[in-house]
């Protein structure tokens, strides 16, 4: 998995989305991240230190490509702005789902 900075993550995410638009899909996950890369210690050992502030780990995956970035608390508004622009520009292929009325609801009113 490749750890990128925030702006490069969005650029690579756009490339992944363009490649996946034709014949596949991609997933994007958000996770709270405390900065610890070590596993939780066993009983009797000192616990891992608690972070002062938590961060957000964003991961994207498509086929064999995996990218990730860590968003700090002060960078969240800028990153969410870039992410919303990405979503608005790339999610244009969604089809509107037609609601089907059931016969019971149609006879009531």
UniProtKB/TrEMBL annotation:
Entries under Gene3D superfamilies matching the protein: Signal recognition particle alu RNA binding heterodimer, srp9/1
Record's subcellular location: Cytoplasm
Superkingdom assignment: Eukaryota
GO molecular-function terms, A-Z: 7S RNA binding; endoplasmic reticulum signal peptide binding
Protein family according to the UniProt entry: Belongs to the SRP14 family.
Encoding gene (name): Dyak\GE25671
Protein purpose: Component of the signal recognition particle (SRP) complex, a ribonucleoprotein complex that mediates the cotranslational targeting of secretory and membrane proteins to the endoplasmic reticulum (ER). SRP9 together with SRP14 and the Alu portion of the SRP RNA, constitutes the elongation arrest domain of SRP. The complex of SRP9 and SRP14 is required for SRP RNA binding.
UniProt keyword list: Cytoplasm, Ribonucleoprotein, RNA-binding, Signal recognition particle
Protein name in the entry: Signal recognition particle 14 kDa protein
Keyword Cytoplasm carried by entry: yes
Keyword Aminoacyl-tRNA synthetase: no
Pfam family, one: SRP14
Subunit: Heterodimer with SRP9; binds RNA as heterodimer. Component of a signal recognition particle (SRP) complex that consists of a 7SL RNA molecule of 300 nucleotides and six protein subunits: SRP72, SRP68, SRP54, SRP19, SRP14 and SRP9.
GO CC aspect terms: signal recognition particle, endoplasmic reticulum targeting
Biological process terms in GO annotation: SRP-dependent cotranslational protein targeting to membrane
């Amino acid at each position: 998995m490749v750890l990128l900075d925030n702006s490069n993550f969005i650029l690579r995410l756009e490339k992944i989305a363009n490649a996946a638009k034709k014949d596949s899909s991609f997933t994007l996950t958000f996770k709270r991240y405390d900065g610890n890369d070590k596993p939780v210690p066993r009983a009797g050992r000192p616990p891992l230190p608690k972070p002062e502030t938590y961060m957000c780990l964003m991961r994207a995956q498509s086929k064999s490509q995996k990218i990730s970035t860590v968003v700090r608390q002060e960078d969240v508004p800028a990153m969410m702005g870039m992410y919303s622009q990405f979503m608005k520009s790339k999610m244009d292929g969604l089809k509107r789902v037609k609601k089907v009325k059931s016969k019971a609801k149609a006879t009531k009113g």
